[in-house]
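Worked example 2:
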Amino acid sequence: MSVQPRSPDTLNHTVLFDDGCAKSRLEELTKLFIKKFELEEAEKIWDKAKRQFKTPPTFNYIEAELEIMYGKRAREEAEKVLEAERQAYVSYLSDYIKTNLTRVSKQLRFMVYAINEKGEPYKLKIIVEKMFKALPKGDGYYECEEEYVGEHDFDRLNQINLTRGRLNEFKDYEPYLSEELKKLWVEAQDLATLERVKKEAKGDAEKEQGSEGL
């Protein structure tokens, strides 16, 4: 096995960003680097002994000793390799990411904006309304919360949620995006974030609840 970063075309999201896979990769690389450092040190000592016409010493370290000697530096180098693989993979996917972020932003812009009575565009809010619904067989009522946008437009909110949910595919890539892609990501995130307003069951008073996004 090699300590060199793997080619991005042989990788996928799970291999690089799944916690279990990333942990296994770091452990594997750390062991490889420890072995690499051990061999490099041995070669230096053997070379020095030969130049002094001495018998090279025998290396017989146990694993725990090697971990103490090289573990920290090996782990740091392993993390650099994993980061390099992630960066290369995201760069490899740049066209795909750009195409999809642009498409999602376009769809969200169409869905999250409406036109008021003055013909001016405004961004929709998620209305969280308490409602009372009849229990089965007419045995009283129960209280629940319903969410919608506009005039009780549940379908539109569902479409917004489905569309902005597609951004989850790219969340792990954010630290590795180019400047161009970061701008697209921020734009998509902004469109996906809708202010939430709570509407009480009695009366029409509305209270701000913050915003909802990814």
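Residues 116-212 form one domain. The chain has two domains: 8-92, 116-212.
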